[in-house]
Amino acid sequence: MAAWTALPSASPCTIPRSTCSSGWAAQPPEYTFYRLQDKQEDVLKINLEGNLTLERVQRGQSGIYGCRVEDYDAEEDAELSQTLELRVAYLDPLELSNGEELALPLGGSLATNCSVKGLPTPTLRWTKDSIPLGDGPTLSLSSVTFDSAGSYTCEASMPTVPLLSRNRILRLLVEGSPELRPEETLPKAEGSWTEGDEVRLVCSARGYPEPKLKWSQAGGHPAEPAPGGQGWVSSSLTLKVTSALSQDGVSCEASNPHGNARHVFHFGPVAPQTSQAGVAVMAVAISVGLLLLVVAAFYCMRRKGRPGCCRQGEKGAPPSGDPELSHSGSQRPEQTGLLMGGASGGARRGSGGFRDEC
Fold first, then answer.
1. A Pfam family name for this chain (predicted)?
2. Which of 71, 250, 276, 299 could hold 22 in an S-S bridge, CB 3.0 to 4.6 Å?
3. Rounded to the nearest 5°, which phi and psi values hold at 163?
């Protein structure tokens, strides 16, 4: 007796003519197809072609099928009947003992089962993120952490029937107080900041229920899923460093119903901008002063004509209208002569000469 395995709702299953044939005869023989039910023959079809087609095969059609030929011209030792066993492969939906979603406390344990019915007997395997965890129906976890949270897949397959496979996903939630992950203050380390420097702070947290993130300074961005997954959410804050922040720092807090976690970003001593500005102003003032001295010296050299001019101009000529008196109160002779020569003309010549030299 032969055995067949057919897929549900597959292409028609045909018993070949050669399987139930009596050879050459003067007239075509008659073929009778039947199914054995409780050792009784249930006739399915009688024809002259020698084949039987079963359409949209269901698992209930598994059993023993046979054909018999009525050929009175056949030899006495000719085989005039044959049977075969038909097995319809199937795979039922998978069942999870704890449902499709399960919440565990941080540090808890888990043992859940995945069951399935099928023919041939299916193989079961558990995976997480496409990483195999073990074969068999049972998934066991102990001392779960936030990294344990995620989607676990139970896969059922049949090596002999590759077209038949099913899977079902278990979503595991791990409840606990938030875990906080702050990023370093960039672009400088503590103690190397200057007043007015801009800094971007990032704070990430995870937990269940999903934690809320709050900054001690205004301007923080709403939390959103962080790159890399694993349940992390992150928020960023961009601000300018001040001396007040160097004393108090900037805090980030994550909270959920199970608790909270807090981190403070410190900047250390912040150098004021005024010190650098004062040095710059002093350097500019010195440069301008030196430039003015050079210009003044150059201007004097151009105006004096010869080295003693500026000194002569500084001494000045005695006023034309106030002749110098002697100790006795009388005028000096040379001064008297100049005055007699014409006070107005001499004065003009004296003053004109001074202007010509300087």
1. Ig_3
2. 71
3. -75, -15
Q: Are residues 187 and 262 in the same domain?
A: yes
Closest to 240 (Cα-Cα) out of 215, 219, 221: 219
pLDDT tens digits, 127-185? 998 899 999 999 999 999 999 999 999 999 998 888 889 999 999 999 999 999 988 76
Strand partners, 64: 36, 85
Q: Are residues 166 and 182 in the same domain?
A: no
**What is the number of structural domains in the chain?**
3
Cα separation of 352 and 281, whole Å? 46
**For strand 150-157 and strand 123-128, is the pairing parallel, antiparallel, or unpaired?**
antiparallel
Q: What is the CATH number of the domain that holds 94?
A: 2.60.40.10
CA distances from 31 to 53, 74, 130, 177 (A): 14, 14, 53, 76
Distance CA 356, CA 358 (A): 6
The pTM of the full predicted model, rounded to 2 decimals, is: 0.61
